[in-house]
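Bug report (template v2)

What were you trying to do?
Predict the complex of my protein with DQA.

What happened?
Run completed; filing so the output is reviewed.

Input:
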Amino acid sequence: MSAPKRYDLLIINGPNLGHIGKRDQKTYGHLGMDALDSILKNKMPGIDSRIKRGYFQANGEGQIIDRLERAWEDKIQGLVINPGAYTHTSLALGDCLAWIGIPYVEVHLSNIWSREDIRRRNMTAENSLGVISGFGIMSYALGLEALVWHLDQRDTE
Ligand code: DQA
């Protein structure tokens, strides 16, 4: 049997997600992005050992699109993206995710369907593998696990 594949993945956070763990803790939780590394290391070592992951955060729509285009040029194999409020507004981001064709899981800290009506509108998930929403920082870990599962399946087809 061949060794399990390793994947080159990128985690992207959109606007107002530069201070996760500090921002509105009642809605978004008190754990920051650093907790993701310990969750992966301690609870999901199988996933942790199989991914090379980069992080990117930007508040501007264009900066995120520039980074996504670079991920496409660099042949990044998968994305976990939390587009923040652009989820609900950004046709440009939705268009970008559509054309670059990198498999992605959309994640949210909060459950966007249990909040205000505007947050049910979604411009970014149409081309996603799926959405994980409502588990705080754990949404990212579950997103990475789902992504690895998908890539493994795809590669054995
Ligand atoms: C969010 C949900 C969005 O509605 C909101 O605008 C955010 C964070 C989340 O992770 O729960 O900035 O994406």
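What did the reviewer find?
The chain has a mean pLDDT of 97. The longest helix spans residues 138-156.
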